[in-house]
């Protein structure tokens, strides 16, 4: 007799029918258990455990050795969709290969990050692709398609986009609210997610920690109103770690965790990442919410259905037919070559006065100097390196080790305490390896080493390499390359290979001591305690919680040791000697991704740290043939360097092949063709506030910036030259067909990145000064040309019409530009688009939603209610909301204001101001209508000023004849 499988295990049936069958077999408790990140096995049905979440931003992360590709911002700098798709495929294959050997590895990959790089001081800028929504979308589509695979039913991995929505600050990230006007929402922030979701290779999204318009992202109505309307495909929403608890604990948005959990589930969150692997806390909240009537079983079943569908896509229930089940591709020759190719394509040549490329066959020596010259830095979302190439390694290999000298540029110091010197005891030669060698689900849980002896004080001083990474943040390293670090027992040891961890334990800060000439206390930043010399070794003194009111603030108690600093050699002096003795100097500067700009920590300035400024200036003073190679996760304001130095390059941290790639660019083996994915500004003065998300109002990003940047969006030079000819653009139905010929007019084979921009010539509202609508990276031999075509949807010319609540393309003339950057435009042509003008606001029929303003000053958008809706409140006395072209037709007689709070609303039309008093209401969500006479006719602008604590939701007008 033939044995028939249970329907949920029958691969001949559609997934939907199989899920229906499985759902009805699961008990309520089993279904609730599936809503936690770590879903337990259901042994009675033979269903294994499952977890959402496997980091894979630019390689498999947190699970030990893997191929490490360039940082995400570096992949964005390639402007190469095909390359990034291949990187995604390689990462997906390595996830599968590691999963086959370690079932802790998950197939639900939490990547990519599609938050737009709106502000260059955002600490997590390394995780995004670009400041532009179109470029970000294109790269994200490519990466997710690679991660997903191309099988029609089964997925290689299931990518989740991060972090929904408008998330660009680490400062107060779980309590701050991004005020996002409708135009910015629809034209900028939503778009980065929308195109990738519509492409069909995304399994879900992760909400961000922050609030948008006063409402936490984890209860955002946009999850249902926007996200899930973009596709008929099921999407899983996975919470960020600890965010469900934040709804009560830090945000105080709900009174109880049961209310918060129910609201998140109803809003669309399916998987709760909270309390680590202990699911009992969250499942208990869900059960109690169900008992209290805040949820019903259909809410639970809806989320479980989505999670089960994801598991079916991943082949969990069909191991015999899953095409990716036997994937073994890991650290292959192809993956290593791809990592190098990606690193090469990510290098951006910012300036070149003819110094580059360097001839490997020419005589002479090269000095490779700088704090990152012999470094291959990893970030929080990197895997463990299998292969490693620093700039020094790469240059030695390419130009010959006998021709290359090196000077790091760290200050060499000794620290004196009382009558003795700080010294590092000899370590046991058989001591274990450093932390982080093995994979961990949460690397934040990795503890520092305690198997090495702590520092002591004695007669023989130890020489330490001191680096100031900016803002007074220091690292100290012993002659063997081990960083001073503090373990859980509080002792200071030379034990870390690199700074790292969720709370970095390898950074310190000097604090001057009043009345003690040359004396400093050494503060350990990770704990906030002072470094203290004790009889059993050097340790971090306790923290005075009672006096400071909170942990992490150091105190100057009697245990805090006063150190005197003896400088053995300044780093710039060593650099100057090496530079003077060389024919050419390569200075490598940049950041450590765990210090001064990372998750949980925004940057405070665009300036290069002073220590590194001293290094490049010393090198250049000693040798004018100085190249500055910037290896960093974000832009710097390199105004002086750009003016003084003959050649500058930038690359993000390039992964395992970074040094090899840089050397091949420097030698001319590869012509650079990376392009900047974000604007490089001249100074901090050019930046808006970090929490100012209104890119239109404050003229942010290349779209609206009216100044002259240091280097524009899309900038990048080549060792060759390219000409653009024959630009044509014409309307073809719902597309613009644009063609241009690009020719390599230089003498070396090279890549060019052709960029296509548009702008409205006579817009009725503020529109971008230029907007990217297409790009193409192509390789051309000398003298070769290629005709490239772009099919641009006409909707790309449009904007969100706040007057009518819809997307609109205004009729009129649009300039189409082709060139090599946002400002290096080679050709332009004009196309005319027909259509129906938007017309004035029909305020008698639709009124005015407060958030639908055209311009604002001194206000922010807040939540009208916890579940849905926007309102506006004042942040400054001199505030204003401007609504242009309001059509009052034959006239209006009264105005009604819907508002909460207390104060007044001043409405000015045609120079006449009407004040509507708002008596105190019962809380911020108690909106009431207040009516008063107001006469106006024809088309007029309306100005609104808010006084007091008023939260304005809506203004309605009554016609004179009504």
β-sheet strand percentage: 25-35%
Shape: globular
Largest sheet: 8 strands, antiparallel
Rg from C-alpha positions?
Answer: 30 Å
What quaternary form is this? single chain
Termini separation (Å)? 80 Å
In round numbers, the mean pLDDT is: 95
Low-confidence stretches: 543-557
Portion of residues within helices: 10-25%
Secondary-structure class: alpha+beta
> How many strands?
48
Number of helical segments?
A: 20
Q: What does this protein structure show overall?
A:
The protein is an alpha+beta fold and 962 residues long. 21% of the residues lie in helices and 28% in strands. Strands 14, 15, 16, 17, 18, 21, 22 and 25 form an 8-stranded antiparallel β-sheet that branches. The chain has a 6-stranded mixed β-sheet with strand order 11-28-27-26-12-13, sandwiched between helices. Strands 38, 40, 41, 43, 46 and 48 form a 6-stranded antiparallel β-sheet that branches. The radius of gyration is 30 Å and the shape is globular.
């Amino acid at each position: 007799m033939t044995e028939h499988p249970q329907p949920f295990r029958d691969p001949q049936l559609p997934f939907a029918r199989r899920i229906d069958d499985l759902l009805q077999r699961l008990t309520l408790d089993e279904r609730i258990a599936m809503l936690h990140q770590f879903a337990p096995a259901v042994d009675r049905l033979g269903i294994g455990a499952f977890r959402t979440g496997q980091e894979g931003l630019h390689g498999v992360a947190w699970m030990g050795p893997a191929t490490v590709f360039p940082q995400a911002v570096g992949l964005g700098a390639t402007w190469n969709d095909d390359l990034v798709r291949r990187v995604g495929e390689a990462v997906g294959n390595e996830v599968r290969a590691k999963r086959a050997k370690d079932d802790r590895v998950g197939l639900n990959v939490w990547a990519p990050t599609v938050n737009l790089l709106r502000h260059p001081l955002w600490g997590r800028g390394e995780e995004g692709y670009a400041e532009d929504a179109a470029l970000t979308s294109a790269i994200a589509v490519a990466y997710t398609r690679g991660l997903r695979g191309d099988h029609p039913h089964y997925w290689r991995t299931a990518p989740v986009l991060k972090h929904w929505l408008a998330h660009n600050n680490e400062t107060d990230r779980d309590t701050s609210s991004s005020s996002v006007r409708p135009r910015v929402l629809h034209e900028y922030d939503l778009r980065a997610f929308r195109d990738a979701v519509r492409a069909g290779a995304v399994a879900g999204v992760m909400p961000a920690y922050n609030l948008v318009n006063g409402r936490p992202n984890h209860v955002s109505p946009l999850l249902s109103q926007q996200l899930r309307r973009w596709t008929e495909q099921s999407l899983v929403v996975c919470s960020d770690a600890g965010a469900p608890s934040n709804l009560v604990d830090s945000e105080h948005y709900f009174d109880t965790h049961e209310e918060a959990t129910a609201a998140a589930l109803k809003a669309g969150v399916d998987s709760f990442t909270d309390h680590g692997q202990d699911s009992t806390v969250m499942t208990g909240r869900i059960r109690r919410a169900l008992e209290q009537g805040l949820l019903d079983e259909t809410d639970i079943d809806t989320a479980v259905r989505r999670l089960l569908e994801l598991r079916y896509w991943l082949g969990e229930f069909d191991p015999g037919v899953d095409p990716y089940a036997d994937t073994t591709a890991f650290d292959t020759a192809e993956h290593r070559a791809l990592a190098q190719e990606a690193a090469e394509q990510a290098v951006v040549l910012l300036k070149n006065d003819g110094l580059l490329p360097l001839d490997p066959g020419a005589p002479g020596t090269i000095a490779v100097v700088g704090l990152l010259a012999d470094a291959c830095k990893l970030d929080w979302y990197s895997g463990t390196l299998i292969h490693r190439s620093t700039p020094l390694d790469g240059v030695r290999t390419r130009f010959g080790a006998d021709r290359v000298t090196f000077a790091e540029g760290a200050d060499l110091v000794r620290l004196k305490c009382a009558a003795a010197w700080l010294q590092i005891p000899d370590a046991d030669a058989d001591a274990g390896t450093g932390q982080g060698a093995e994979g961990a689900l949460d690397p934040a849980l990795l503890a520092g080493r305690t198997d090495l002896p702590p520092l002591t004080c004695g007669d023989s001083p130890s020489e330490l390499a001191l680096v100031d990474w900016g803002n007074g943040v220091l690292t100290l390293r012993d002659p063997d390359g081990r960083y001073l670090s503090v373990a859980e027992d509080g002792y200071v040891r030379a034990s870390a290979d690199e700074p790292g961890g969720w709370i970095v334990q390898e950074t310190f800060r000097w604090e001057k001591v009043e009345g003690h000439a040359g004396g400093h206390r050494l503060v350990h930043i990770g704990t906030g305690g002072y470094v203290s010399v004790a009889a059993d070794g050097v340790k971090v003194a306790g923290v005075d919680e009672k006096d400071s009111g909170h942990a992490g603030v150091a105190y100057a108690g009697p245990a805090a040791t006063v150190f005197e600093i003896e400088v053995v050699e300044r780093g710039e002096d060593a650099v100057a000697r090496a530079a003077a003795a060389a024919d050419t100097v390569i200075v490598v500067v940049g950041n450590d991704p765990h210090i001064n700009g990372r998750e949980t920590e925004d940057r405070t300035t665009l300036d290069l740290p002073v220590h590194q400024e001293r290094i490049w200036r010393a090198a250049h003073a000693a040798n004018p043939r100085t190249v500055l190679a910037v290896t960093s996760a974000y832009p710097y304001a390199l105004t002086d360097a750009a003016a003084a130095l003959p050649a500058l390059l930038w690359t993000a941290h390039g992964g395992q092949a970074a040094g090899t790639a840089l050397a091949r660019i420097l030698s001319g083996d590869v012509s650079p063709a990376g392009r900047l994915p974000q604007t490089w500004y001249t100074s901090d003065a050019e930046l808006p506030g970090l929490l100012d998300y209104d890119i239109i109002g404050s003229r942010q990003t290349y779209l609206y910036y009216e100044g002259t940047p240091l280097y524009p969006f899309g900038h990048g030079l080549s060792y060759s030259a390219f000409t653009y000819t024959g630009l044509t653009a014409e309307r073809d139905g719902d597309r613009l067909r644009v063609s241009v010929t690009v020719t390599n007019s230089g003498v070396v084979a090279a890549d060019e990145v052709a960029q296509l921009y548009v702008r409205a010539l006579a817009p009725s509202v503020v529109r971008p000064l230029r907007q990217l609508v297409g790009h193409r990276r192509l390789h051309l031999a000398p003298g070769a040309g290629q005709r490239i075509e772009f099919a641009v949807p006409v909707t790309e010319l449009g904007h969100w019409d706040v007057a009518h609540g819809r997307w609109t393309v205004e009729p009129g003339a649009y300039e189409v530009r082709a060139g090599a950057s946002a400002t290096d435009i080679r050709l332009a042509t004009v196309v005319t688009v027909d259509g129906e003008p938007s017309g004035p606001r029909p305020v008698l029929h639709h009124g005015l939603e407060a958030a639908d303003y055209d311009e604002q000053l001194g206000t922010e958008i807040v939540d009208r209610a916890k579940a849905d809706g926007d309102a506006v409140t004042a942040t400054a006395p001199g505030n204003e909301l401007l609504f242009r072209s309001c059509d009052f037709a034959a006239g209006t007689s009264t105005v009604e204001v819907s508002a909460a709070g207390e104060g007044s609303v001043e409405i000015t039309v045609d120079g006449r101001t009407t004040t509507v008093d708002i008596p105190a209401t019962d809380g911020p969500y108690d909106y009431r209508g207040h009516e008063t006479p107001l006469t106006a006719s024809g088309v007029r602008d309306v100005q609104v000023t808010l006084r007091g604590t008023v939260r304005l939701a809506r203004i309605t007008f009554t016609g004179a004849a009504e």
